[in-house]
Write a sequence for this structure.
């Protein structure tokens, strides 16, 4: 196991006894208008299309789109005001160790794909926040 971690090719442990190690990605994405909603549906389809990839997405959790379950706030430097927006939350667990060499590339691709879908749907985003953290899943 240590050899795989050092080589950066480490997939999540096969469940051995009580737990396996993974990487959890959390996203809060804006859903304030029809363009955002279209982007969200494309992003969901993208997640579902990753089932057969080398590092597959085999499941994810999301909040409701209508009505949106979360409000987000961010400080707009240009207007010097707080901006309130509706958000949808996603949680994705990748079967990949947090220390795996492939992780930064996979996260960069995920973030870029999300940004591309927002832009394609007519609502380019200045920033996409993606949080990744190590997880030990207990069986």
């Amino acid at each position: 196991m240590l050899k795989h971690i050092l080589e950066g090719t480490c997939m999540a442990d096969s469940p051995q006894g009580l737990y396996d190690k993974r990487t959890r990605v959390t996203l809060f994405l804006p859903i304030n208008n029809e363009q955002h909603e279209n982007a969200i549906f494309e992003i969901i389809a993208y997640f579902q299309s990753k089932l057969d990839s080398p590092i597959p997405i085999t499941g994810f959790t999301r909040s409701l789109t209508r009505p949106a379950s979360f409000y987000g706030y961010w400080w707009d430097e240009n207007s010097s005001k707080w901006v309130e927006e509706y958000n949808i939350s996603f949680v994705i667990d990748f079967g990949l160790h947090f220390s795996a060499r492939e992780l930064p590339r996979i996260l960069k691709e995920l973030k870029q794909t999300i940004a591309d879908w927002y832009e394609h749907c007519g609502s380019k985003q200045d920033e996409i926040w993606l949080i990744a953290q190590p997880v030990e899943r207990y069986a």
Observations:
- The first strand starts at residue 19 and ends at 30.
